[in-house]
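We both want to read discrete structure tokens more fluently, so let's practise on a single case. Once you have written the record down, we can walk along the chain together.
***
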Amino acid sequence: MSDKNNDTLDKTSASRRRFLQAGLAGGAVLAGASAARAAGDPLITEVQDWNRYLGDGVDANPYGMPSEFEAHVVRRDVPWLTADPVSSINFTPLHELDGIITPNGVCFERHHGGTAIINPADHRLMINGLVDTPLVFTMQDLMRFPRENRVYFLECAANSGMEWRGSQLNGCQFTHGMVHCVAYTGVPLKYLLEEAGVKTNGKWVLAEGADAAAMTRSIPMDKALDDCLVAFKMNGEALRPEQGYPLRLVVPGWEGNMWVKWLRRLEVGDEPWAQREETSKYTDLLANGKARRHTWEMEVKSVITNPSPQAPITHGRGQMVISGLAWSGYGRIQRVDVSIDGGRNWQTARLDGPSLPKALHRFYHDFQWDGSEMLIQSRAIDEGGYIQPTKDELRAARGENSIYHNNGIQTWYVKADGVVENVEVS
């Protein structure tokens, strides 16, 4: 046998030894699983129905759906938050998800006039105002422009808004579920504006939706020419109707109200329009009665998704994984710290998966839980050095009048029996 083959065998044997050693170490951690195997768990030792009978054929589900055993993983609303479902919100089930990409079917919805149902063959996008050549595009026209694929988070400015004055909603889905993250496919807005020719005094763009509310927002020209997309697909397939089908604006890192859905018109002007959604709404009312306007960026934020009130600990003490999400409208997340004692001590969490600018980041903290009560928190730091504040720090700066842009640290109280509640510490 050649020396090369001997070297290969030695490396393989060493690798197997390391694997076996790791398995023995893990066995001490996962004693419950070992006990089940030793007892001869019938669910693994006996043949089950799904082993005996043929399943559905390929024609049974032309469009794939989640397993029937995942039927609980859905968007949910809080009926008392809004007066009518057509101008309302539902929430992403963050505690049921992992990774950084949100499945299309559970991306949160925010409507001001209900979902517009639009035939793409009848949809048009107009560019007018301070341009050299006013233009009207069909969907087919837009498909001829160079397109890009980008992964971004979208967060409603009111996400966590009910927590400004104290802990109210007992669930991660309800406190932080107005956020999702998908891969958008679309045409950079700058290409369309270049086609129309922006006049030298064109400093703002008014984006208008085709829904019954005619949602409109003013966007600075610098942002429009930087990284905005006119998107027609999400996660590889067409936008869902509730997400703006057939066309929506993507404004990376900025509040979701500016991501106008069912996009039908872009008007170029020389100043902001002062529409309803940027005057009486989506401004930050301070303690002195004055309101901050044009606070577009969604600042650095994080939340532990598991354990949380809707995802209690059910496996008992021993090996545990804390999981959560972090994001920043200013770029990438640099670090996430986790505390299990209400912020007295912090440990650096493990970031895992893609690290993309203005996208969700997944973090984990692996440790041994001894069954004691915990006050678990996460604190994110982005690449610009911005540190997620405590709620007390945020309130000291802005008061308690706002319902927007709450990025304060969230606390979950984990009881000895694994039940989790939404609380605050000071």
Remarks:
- The radius of gyration is 25 Å.
